[in-house]
């Protein structure tokens, strides 16, 4: 604001018309300010409007599952759990969503079991142990991992990683929950790393100095003082990573084999909610029970990631207050 | 700065040229649909355009269902489909255009059964194939192979090939839940190449790096490999027609193109790509 004003003030103010001119200038400036503010407000609200429209659209298309009698004959909440077969195309369509829920859970568990330790420990290393030069290289490198398109990660998992995973685990099927989960983990690590690292570095130096002065080692300081202090932020990073893992589509579509199986075995092929939508929506007859069902799956996914994101937001808020209070 | 002006003029002329050709393409024939038929339709289009200067045929894939939807929405002239149109699709077309659409069989496809090169199994009966995909048979030992679990691969349920296989090979029964579904025939072939215990199905034109499995109608008939002779005389049991659909009886440029596709030249090209002539 002050920058703009001083720039304007340096304009020529000679002559007797200066006073008159300045009134006009002030008015022009007010109009311009109002226009810019309006434009920015429009941008901000268009994002919100877009979000609302998407929610309304998804829910509207999923509604027949709950309220439309013709649809409910084939696809209803009862039908979703009456069978554990997902065969929506055929003379007698079967919409058992249990294998999709189990599949999503299995992939996400593997992904998080891999990504949480790696992501958080990498963040601890970067913020607590790494010399400045290494940290400067590490952070962009991990963030570049986030820039790899998920279809490339998925392709890598399909062609290369699946053979490694099969060789190590002796899995009966090449494409399975472990393979998809590890690839998904690679996609999630940057999120966990980045948010955790920021949270760790936001911990005041006095914490660490106090701990070191009391004779604690660097590792003891990092593990017992810094990490707990940044706990809420690390938790937020993990939750944001979890939300991404639940919704991620391309990696699991390519790397999981997409067989709708209900089992405990992590080496079985799995079919996830997101991959089902991606694979099937393109060819489904608009307005059919299958169509409504896919939107219902979308609504489940949406609700899940929404809740995770809200909880993550609460954690971030808590961290901020705690560090500000300290 | 001055030197830039001719350059800018050149760029502008180039842009105009591109715009011009796009506009011209808008008047050409659009062909959209089956992923199975994309290679075939492209060859047809290329050769047809080479022989008929000034004509333009644009080919895109997306899947049989996508093509039929485009036909119903009026965004394509010809729809390619590896399965017949469904009842509700026909109804939609009738509601919009008061037309039943025109179905033209343009080629025959022998659906290959892919096996890994290392698999000692060379032939399967139609019934064995069904049992493998419905999950009744789960070990290669049961059909004369190694003692290893079978890993069946198939297409996504949005694919015309998936529906064909379910209707004609599984006779409408459900696929085993253990059947893995992959996006695209190329992905299925790729999976079988890397999986010694894998089995897959798809167009014969895609079978690179895997071996075809000979299939017999039943125990009394010999198992045969898919080739022009066995597909044509019907001794190879896993065959289907590939279709062109148009909204109304084809006329003008569209008719000329379809007539050419059905001519000896067009049908010979189908054989070359790996499909089989329809007559």
What does this structure look like?
The complex is a heterodimer of chains A (326) and B (279). Chain A is mainly alpha-helical and 326 residues long. Chain A has helices at 2-9, 18-62, 64-67, 69-74, 77-82, 98-129, 132-147, 150-169, 177-201, 205-213, 218-229, 231-247, 250-255, 273-280, 289-325, and strands at residues 86-87, 94-95. Chain A has two domains: 2-62; 77-325, MetI-like (MetI-like fold, Orthogonal Bundle), CATH 1.10.3720.10. Chain A has a two-stranded antiparallel sheet with strand order 1-2. With 279 residues, chain B is an alpha/beta fold. Chain B has two domains: 7-108 and 240-273, D-Maltodextrin-Binding Protein, domain 2 (3-Layer(aba) Sandwich); 112-237, D-Maltodextrin-Binding Protein, domain 2 (3-Layer(aba) Sandwich). In chain B, strands 1, 2, 3, 4, 6, 7, 8, 9 and 11 form a nine-stranded mixed sheet that branches. In chain B, strands 5-10 form a two-stranded parallel ribbon. In chain B, helix 2 (38-51) links the parallel strand 1 (29-33) and strand 2 (57-60). Chain B is globular. Residues 1-26 of chain B have low confidence and may be disordered. The chains are: A mainly alpha (326), B alpha/beta (279).
Topology:
The complex is a heterodimer of chains A (326) and B (279).
Chain A: H1 2-9, H2 18-62, H3 64-67, H4 69-74, H5 77-82, E1 86-87, E2 94-95, H6 98-129, H7 132-147, H8 150-169, H9 177-201, H10 205-213, H11 218-229, H12 231-247, H13 250-255, H14 273-280, H15 289-325
Antiparallel strand pairs in A: 1-2
Helix pairs in contact in A: 2-15, 6-9, 6-12, 7-9, 8-9, 9-12, 10-11, 12-15, 14-15
Chain B: H1 4-26, E1 29-33, H2 38-51, E2 57-60, H3 64-73, E3 78-81, H4 87-97, E4 102-115, E5 123-125, H5 126-134, E6 151-155, H6 160-168, E7 180-182, H7 185-194, E8 198-203, E9 211-212, E10 214-216, H8 228-232, E11 239-246, H9 252-262, H10 264-273
Parallel strand pairs in B: 1-2, 1-3, 5-10, 6-7, 6-8
Antiparallel strand pairs in B: 3-11, 4-8, 4-9, 4-11
């Amino acid at each position: 604001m002050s920058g703009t004003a001083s720039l304007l003030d340096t304009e020529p103010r000679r002559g007797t018309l200066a006073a008159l001119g300045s009134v006009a200038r002030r008015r022009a400036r007010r109009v311009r300010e109002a226009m810019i503010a309006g434009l920015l407000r429009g941008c901000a609200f268009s994002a919100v409007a877009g979000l609302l429209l998407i929610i309304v659209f998804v829910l509207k298309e999923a509604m027949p599952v709950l309220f439309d009698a013709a649809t409910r004959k084939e696809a209803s909440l009862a039908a979703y759990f009456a069978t554990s077969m997902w065969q929506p195309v055929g003379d007698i369509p079967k919409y058992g969503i249990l294998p999709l829920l189990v599949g999503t859970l299995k992939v996400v568990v593997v992904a998080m079991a891999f990504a949480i330790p790696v992501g958080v420990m990498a963040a601890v290393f970067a913020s607590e142990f790494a010399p400045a030069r290494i940290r400067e290289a590490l952070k962009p490198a991990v963030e570049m991992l986030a820039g790899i398109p998920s279809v490339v990660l998925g392709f890598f998992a399909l062609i290369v990683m699946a053979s490694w995973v099969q060789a190590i685990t002796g899995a009966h099927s090449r494409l399975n929950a472990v393979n998809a989960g590890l690839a998904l983990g690679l996609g999630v690590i940057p999120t966990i790393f980045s948010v955790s690292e920021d949270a760790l570095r936001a911990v005041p130096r006095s914490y660490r100095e106090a701990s070191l002065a009391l004779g604690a080692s660097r590792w003891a300081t990092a593990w017992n003082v810094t990490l707990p202090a940044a706990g809420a932020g690390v938790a937020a990073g993990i939750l944001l990573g979890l939300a991404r893992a639940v919704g991620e589509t391309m990696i699991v579509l390519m790397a999981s084999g997409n067989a709708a199986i209900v089992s405990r075995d992590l080496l079985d092929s799995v079919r996830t909610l997101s991959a089902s939508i991606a694979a099937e929506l393109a060819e489904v007859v608009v307005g059919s029970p299958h169509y409504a069902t896919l939107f219902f799956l979308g609504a489940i996914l949406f609700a899940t990631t929404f809740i995770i994101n809200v909880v993550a937001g609460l954690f971030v808020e808590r961290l901020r207050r705690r560090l500000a209070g300290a | 700065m001055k030197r830039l002006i001719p350059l800018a003029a050149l760029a502008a002329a180039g842009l105009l040229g591109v715009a011009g050709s796009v506009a011209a393409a808008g008047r050409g024939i659009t062909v959209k649909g089956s992923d199975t038929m994309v290679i075939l339709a492209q060859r047809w289009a290329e050769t047809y355009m080479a022989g008929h200067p000034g004509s333009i045929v644009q080919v895109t894939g997306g899947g049989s269902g996508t093509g039929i939807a485009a036909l119903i929405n009026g965004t394509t002239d010809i729809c390619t489909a590896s399965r017949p149109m469904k009842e509700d699709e026909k109804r939609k077309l009738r509601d919009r255009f008061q037309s039943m659409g025109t179905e033209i069989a343009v080629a025959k496809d022998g659906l290959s059964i892919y096996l890994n090169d290392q698999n000692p199994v060379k032939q399967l009966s139609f019934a064995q194939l069904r049992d493998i995909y419905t999950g009744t048979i789960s070990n290669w030992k049961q059909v004369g192979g190694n003692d290893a679990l079978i890993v069946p691969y198939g297409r996504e349920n949005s694919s015309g090939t998936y529906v064909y296989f379910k209707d004609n090979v599984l006779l409408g029964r459900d696929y085993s839940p253990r059947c893995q579904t992959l996006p695209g025939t190329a992905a299925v072939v790729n999976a079988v190449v890397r999986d010694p215990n894998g089995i897959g199905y798809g167009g014969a034109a895609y079978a690179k790096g895997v071996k075809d499995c000979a299939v017999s109608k039943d125990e009394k008939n010999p198992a045969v490999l898919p080739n022009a002779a066995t597909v044509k005389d019907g001794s190879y049991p896993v065959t289907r027609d590939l279709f062109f659909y148009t909204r109304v009886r084809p006329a003008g440029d569209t008719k000329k193109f379809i007539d050419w596709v059905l001519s000896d030249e067009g049908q010979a090209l189908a054989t070359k790509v790996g499909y089989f002539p329809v007559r």
